[in-house]
Amino acid sequence: MTTVTERLRADRPVFSVEFMPPRDEADERRLWRAVRELEGLDPAFVSVTYGAGGSSRDRTIRTTGRIATETTMVPMAHLTAVDHSVTELRNVIGWYAAHGIRNILALRGDPPGDPNGTWVQHPQGLNYAEELVTLIRDLGDFCVGVAAFPYGHPSAESPERDIDFLLRKFAAGADFAIAQLFFEAEDFLRFRDLVAARGCDNLVIPGIMPLTTPKMLAKTVELSGAQLPAGLAARLQPLVDDPKAFRAEGIDVITETSERLLAEGVTDLHFYTFNQSRATREVVNRLGLVPARA
Ligand code: FAD
User: Rg for the chain (alpha carbons), in Å?
Assistant: First the structure.
């Protein structure tokens, strides 16, 4: 099966998408509708997030397997160290290998229950994503991605220190990183340049979420760990009671941010879809990013 890095070697920019494991049957139908709607646009790869608990994890594994066997797309499975012994992690990685899934996003994960709580290592488990990268690399010929944080990870001593650990993940064998949400193209570009200035040429891919609703805007504030910049607040906040106008402005904002990233040489935009395809399709069409295979 093709690797993510092979798919990103195109001589022109591409996009990729993230899905979440479906929670129930209705969600599963929604997810597969989005998968099929995006398949025709040929995303470079499709990632599936890894949940905090047992059944959602099974759904991640099943969904990634179905994408591998029932679609033409290249899947990437997320995997976290949360509540897993090394033996369990080996089993999941082995299952992926057996199903031909060669791309894994190696994450530590958040403390269960409270993402801002104190991290507790499983007694027979791993402490940092770096160790998971090493484990995956030891187990087979995988293409491994890791997380990166343009404003620094919330629990990091400092953004600079967080970059030290990102570099350690690359040194352990990670091929590329996907960045957490950010607000302005310059925030990502500054981070990308800081990483490059440390002598690292691994690809860092920006994570993009179409700002279609006030809820998505709030989610971006929460995940990025940053304040909403005044310029964006002035554009979006007056529209919170007008869903149509908010959506139109939010799509404009994300299109403009993406255009700026592409103009600065970014080669892949990774869209967080929340299992809906419409906004992503709209933005990638406006950017002229489809189809990647043509
Ligand atoms: P790490 O790289 O291990 O870093 C965790 C913290 O420890 C950071 O503060 C870092 O600075 C510090 N650190 C790292 N290495 C060391 C070291 N060697 N010594 C000392 N300190 C160190 N969560 C999920 O549960 N499921 C998902 O599917 C998921 N997908 C994600 C996808 C993306 C693109 C991103 C950006 C995040 C995702 N997350 C997901 C969230 C992620 O699991 C959390 O943000 C988690 O808190 C950090 O994970 P990490 O892999 O960056 O951890």
Answer: 18
Q: Tokens 């935009």 — which residue?
A: 269
Q: Which atom of ligand 1 is nearest to the CA of 82?
A: 25
Distance 235 CA to ligand 1 centre (A): 31
- pLDDT, tens digit, 9 for 90 and up, residues 83-125: 999 999 999 999 999 988 999 999 999 988 888 888 989 999 9
- Counting the structural domains of the chain, the total is 1
3-state SS assignment for residue 175: coil
Q: What is the pLDDT of residue 294?
A: 45
What φ, ψ does residue 24 adopt, rounded to 5°?
-155, -175
**Closest by CA position to 151, among listed 206, 69, 210:** 206
Instruction: Assess if residue 292 is contained within a domain.
Output: no
Which candidate in 18, 28, 186, 264 is catalytic?
A: 18
Do the domain assignments include residue 260?
yes
CATH of the domain at 261: 3.20.20.220
Domain membership flag for residue 140? yes
Whether 151 is in a domain gets the answer: yes
The tens digit of pLDDT for each residue in 179-190 reads: 999 999 999 999
CB of 95 within 6 A of ligand 1: the answer is no
Q: What are 31-69's pLDDT values in tens digits? A: 999 999 999 999 999 999 998 776 788 899 999 999 999
Residue 60 sits in which domain range?
4-286
57 ligand 1 Cβ < 6 A: no
The answer, yes or no, to whether any atom of ligand 1 lies below 6 A from the CB of 80, is yes
